[in-house]
Amino acid sequence: MKKKLLVLLILVTSFAARAQSYLGYFHDNYAGVQSVLFNPASIADSRFKTDINVFSVSSSVGNDLYGVKLLDVFKDGYDFDSQAKMTPSNKNNGIINVDFMGPSFMFNIAPKHSLAFFTRARAITNLRDVNGNLVDQVKDGLDDASNFNFDAGSPNGVSHGWGEVGLSYAAVLYQNGQHFLKGGITAKYLQGVANGYIQGRNGKVAFVENTTTPENSVLITEGQLTVGGSQDWENNEDYEFDINSSGFGADFGLVYEWRPDYEKYDVSKAKPADNNFRDLNKYKLRFGFSVTDVGSINYKKGKQDTYDITGVVTQDMIDNADNLYDFLDDHYTKIATAKGAKTNLPTALHADVDWNIHNKFYLNLNGDISMVSNTKLNAVSIADRVSLTPRYESRWFSFFVPVSWMEYSGMQVGSGLRVGTFFVGSGSVLTNLVSKESKAADFYVGVKIPVYQKKFKDTDEDGIIDKEDACKDVAGPVENNGCPWPDKDGDKVLDKDDACPDVAGPVENKGCPWKDSDGDTLLDNVDACPTVAGPVENKGCPWPDTDGDSVLDKDDACPDVAGLVENKGCPVLDADKDGIPDSEDNCPILAGPKENKGCPEVNKATLEQLRVEAKSIFFPTGKSTLDVADKGENSGRLDAIKEILRNYPNAKFAVNGHTDNVGNAKANQKLSEQRAKAVMDALIAKGVNPANLTSNGYGSTKPVKSNKTAAGRAENRRTEIVYLGNL
């Protein structure tokens, strides 16, 4: 044992591999069955018909104690202990993980439902809260150590290897407009392989060197030490596989996608060739949340021993020890023993946000949080992590550069790619190439057989995909297996719809030529009466005589009333019953004598009424402007005159204007003419026929009273309407 025994006692091992696998790759939309390991909901509404993993492996190494330039480690003569840069603290940490994925596959069982099956072998080692100063002090062994006294604290180490067989189910849970939610669950059968753990409590270590007799140098220790595993390693150093060391585990996940352009992917509007848009990215933002590795494995043959390690041992005792258990049993007190060991899975929370920046460029922010306490006995866990990963992603190629902060090892930058059936990458490769103090290294590689969803080919764009189209280069209907219907007679009526497939005819007659059934030179398609001959002018129908007066309706001015031929089919009418037919009556609605062409004669009463109304029309002094405002006195007089004149449409009337003798005779003459014309124009404006009116002015030449008195002159200033006779 010698120096190695001391290293085991104080847990001086700080190398670790990361518990996270496939860093930078698993959030790719084409990660396929690998993505189910981190979020089982991811396989719903997938870009795959199926994805088959042939094999893939992921492993990494990192710690917070040793920093190295990774390429130097592989050079001849490199001394890790002396050339690596150490950053010891009272609580240095590390973990170890190897993740091998065996034959696995995923596939869609329905448009909104998917299944995955996977096989997986895993191994994780955790070392927590190790006093790095103590490691640095004794890395060369006790022979070279100076006197020292260290608080070893409560270091905690565990290593666990197991296998998994998992079945995942994912489905679309909600889809409404731009909101899309899917969920998934994984059930896992766990088969334990091997487990070992060691934990100190309140440990202290002091070394007193005897330079005279080194073999008498002593190691003074305090505290407790618990050692255990999946079998009784104390009594049987040979590994024994136990099929009964098993357990069950589960993963749970949700994925929400924001799809602002959801109308572009409306399945109800999809063409057959679109394949319901299953091959396309439809989100702008994707949010994922999952809980993985809930469960444990029960090692029924496991054994756990706890020792009080308070005591003193010499260098000679250490050098002569054969194994750890013999050394502990010989020199310390065993205070407790327990049978069986229950080892948890590295339960963790995972969250990610994926932003589709533009087309095939994405930016992903994701992180892991361990749900396992670092102080728990026999408990494996992951390291907390946050990663920002830009990536380019297409069906057959992806490239990504994860930038991560890792618990223990700090910042690291990696790179990876996927080409067809092959993918490879590392979450730390770029850091390893340039950093002189790299504390982590990882890689992953895999081979798979992807079968992608894709848009179907429709060469002739007739809505029938090529594999179902009997005429893929020529558009045709579904009913004819994608082939166009024939048209033998070339009349643009397909044979399937053509009643006369061998003779050209119009579409309206089902592909048959039109007939002329009644022989009136009009074809039936334009003949309104195809079975009765009729003139072209009446669309092939005979002219009707509705009232039976032998005058056809087309010539009958009164088609619904029998009349005389000479009266264009209308009966003789005498509306005013004055014995003069309306056709000869100049006033058909006013009775009048025949000698006056049926119009009434103007009588004395009418003339008197006209005289009274006319003389009451007033003008402003010296002016011919006629105020005919609505409801004014002049307007009322004019309306009354108009109604009288309308009763005599065959009579001719004169509007005469007169003045007194005051003033210039020529001016009076002109004023009388203007006033007479103003009255005539006002009557015409109100609807009197201009042919019935004339106007005259007489100045002061025709007084009716003496101009010597004011009253006489007032009477002489007048307008008169006189009857001139018939037209």
Automatic annotation (TrEMBL):
Location in the cell: Cell outer membrane
Keywords: Cell outer membrane, Membrane, Signal
Record-annotated OmpA-like domain positions: 606-727
Signal peptide limits: 1-19
Cited Gene3D superfamilies: OmpA-like domain, TSP type-3 repeat
InterPro entries: Bact_OuterMem_StrucFunc, DUF5723, OMP_bac, OmpA-like, OMPA-like_CS, OmpA-like_sf, Thrombospondin_3-like_rpt, TSP_type-3_rpt
Full protein name: DUF5723 family protein
UniProt organism field: Flavobacterium calami
